[in-house]
Amino acid sequence: MKLHLLLTGNELMAGDIIDSNSAMIAEQIKDYGWRINKKVTVGDELDRLCSEINQLCDDADVLIINGGLGPTVDDLTAVALARVSGTEICEHPQALAHLTQWCKTRGFSLNASNYKQAMLPKGCDIIANERGSAVGIKLKHKNCLIFASPGVPSELRPMLSNEIIPTLDNLFPSDHIQTLRLGVFGLGESGIQEMVNSHLSDWPDDIELGFRASMPVLEVKLTTRGSNPEARLRQWTPRVTELLADHLLGELPISLPSATINALKANNLQLCTAESCTGGLIASQLTSVAGASQVYPGGIVSYSNQVKAQLLNVSEESLASDGAVSEHVVRQMALGAIKATGADIAIAVTGIAGPDGGSADKPVGTVWIAWGTAQELKAIKLQLPFDRTAFQSWVAALSLDLVRRQILDLPELPQLMKRFQR
Amino acid sequence: MKLHLLLTGNELMAGDIIDSNSAMIAEQIKDYGWRINKKVTVGDELDRLCSEINQLCDDADVLIINGGLGPTVDDLTAVALARVSGTEICEHPQALAHLTQWCKTRGFSLNASNYKQAMLPKGCDIIANERGSAVGIKLKHKNCLIFASPGVPSELRPMLSNEIIPTLDNLFPSDHIQTLRLGVFGLGESGIQEMVNSHLSDWPDDIELGFRASMPVLEVKLTTRGSNPEARLRQWTPRVTELLADHLLGELPISLPSATINALKANNLQLCTAESCTGGLIASQLTSVAGASQVYPGGIVSYSNQVKAQLLNVSEESLASDGAVSEHVVRQMALGAIKATGADIAIAVTGIAGPDGGSADKPVGTVWIAWGTAQELKAIKLQLPFDRTAFQSWVAALSLDLVRRQILDLPELPQLMKRFQR
């Protein structure tokens, strides 16, 4: 079944709103094994709308139109559908009944704007709208089945699941699709592609392997269909997880902080933070996860040297002789945080986020990270080629991952970060 | 000038990601008086891509292609452009130089996947990518000028403003549109609309007044064109700023943390933080601003009671009798942070972000905020009807705004928050 999508609305073209409806439609139809083949978005212009409907219908079994069913003058979908069908719009009794009832429930009588929504292409079917005034339209044009749906997401959603999808499922029954999404940290997109090329050359055609970067976490997606897609995925997933190895955080939705928190919980450990260059970002990411309080008593944002000395007991001598961005200081920060919070494990970071503050010796992008227990504290130095925002985000991500790796007894550094070590 | 947009990517068709790039493009070109006429989105299929490029070029002066420039096998834009141009892809010296340099900076050598990104349609021009590996492509097909740009928003943005828009501005000069964007905190969208309706009834037709919510900050936008749009805006802007009054943060790009940091700098004051329920978010937002170290020595994330007592000197007695979410505790947190960091002003927050941890007495959404100097410390209690993420984000925003208001001697609370005060 070949399905196209036509979105209409000046606000979509002007960038005033971001289209989330097409993602909702794609998500909902995906489990039925269908996908959107082509998506066209145009403004509220009648000629353009008519020509797009005609072109899209020539090339598809199904066309979903979204938007343009409202009460205002720029809502043109009904008129466009009438024109391409060579008919006219006229009062639709069921649509009128719905509108009358809809207004009555809300305590006002039908006005001219609302009445306009009862004027539909002659002979079309309607699709019930349980949330709003605009009914949907169903009609056949050429060999294409057209559904016209409202642009308001909360009205579109039930229309899709109650009427459009069941109709399609009846007309075009298909195998359902099974998808597995894995969260990965510390491998680049091209790095994974290389690994796949060299280690999964026997990968079967019926399981699609896709990647998506939403840095710093990368998503690896396995998709299959057929008579028993679950079993098919179960059979091949281990090959991928083996390849991703220590870089695999788990099945999505998983985030770096929740992966680290899970590791802490499973081992009954408490983590604290001492942040300079990340300025509270690590703490904030940890505490964005509900239930973080079980494993995270708190931390110190020691942005100034004075706070490093006062709250984390970093020696004035180290600060003066080695500088704030140094191994001595980062180790003292970690120990100071453990002492102050009573946690088992610390993350401490100190670096130069930029754009200013770098020197020949310690350029922007230099960072020292210390992590571990008071007894077994590790420290590394990295040089990261990112701007301020990305620098903070990568240092936070890596810090959380270093702790996860240490708790789970995995290799010390993720692949992607080795090149930045100094 | 007629401009079409072609977006490519299976992830866009599958609903895995929501396209925000086309809104970014529409926003940026709008100021030049241009708009997107038609937008087509297709998956990563070579035949479909080629036929769409051909069709769109027949009907437009300019085609912007977005996506499909990456290193993986499903990135097909370069190949498609070569095919429709009747040429082939070959190594592009400038692209190769960029890639080599890009890899070198990151400490690894060019692999096959990255090398693929140097293979471009013969004879095309490149568009520099200052943020990523994939250069853009510029070429003429039929009578249409094509720009191919990367799908990663942070790479697309500078490419648009540095190269694509200046090129178009040169080829298709038009009346410029003058736009003024104001950042506002503490007024709702409908609240502003009401204010406009009742106080700006004489607003002129040639200046468009628009709102855009990117909560917690709201954008108010004035747009005009004509022979002297700057003067026209200068004339009417004071009417709007007067209306927004203490809720106006300044001209965008302004953020809440930078507005607060500006106020601190102007008054030579230092701020510290003591965060419980926001868990470092306030600190993180402050330190996301370059130069924050001038006014922000640091803070404490006192997630556990033990850390509140140990690092902020909150009395065990208050914690036991009043509970962690109480006026006594939040005031002691603020004083403790000032003492520990040596700052002039503190923000302290303690509350119940949820989803768990609420009680009949202190339901989820309860928060105490204290702010001010040791001598003049204020505290308020609010009850916020938001989920965990929104709760943390609004508490952080309000806290920063309370400090800004105090320093600038503005009314204590923004309009929108009054209804939540308890």
Automatic annotation (TrEMBL), chains A, B:
<dbReference type="InterPro" id="IPR008136">
    <property type="entry name" value="CinA_C"/>
</dbReference>
<dbReference type="Pfam" id="PF02464">
    <property type="entry name" value="CinA"/>
</dbReference>
<dbReference type="InterPro" id="IPR050101">
    <property type="entry name" value="CinA"/>
</dbReference>
<dbReference type="InterPro" id="IPR036425">
    <property type="entry name" value="MoaB/Mog-like_dom_sf"/>
</dbReference>
<comment type="similarity">
    <text>Belongs to the CinA family.</text>
</comment>
<dbReference type="InterPro" id="IPR008135">
    <property type="entry name" value="Competence-induced_CinA"/>
</dbReference>
<dbReference type="InterPro" id="IPR001453">
    <property type="entry name" value="MoaB/Mog_dom"/>
</dbReference>
<feature type="domain" description="MoaB/Mog">
    <location>
        <begin position="4"/>
        <end position="171"/>
    </location>
</feature>
<dbReference type="InterPro" id="IPR036653">
    <property type="entry name" value="CinA-like_C"/>
</dbReference>
<protein>
    <recommendedName>
        <fullName>CinA-like protein</fullName>
    </recommendedName>
</protein>
<dbReference type="Pfam" id="PF00994">
    <property type="entry name" value="MoCF_biosynth"/>
</dbReference>
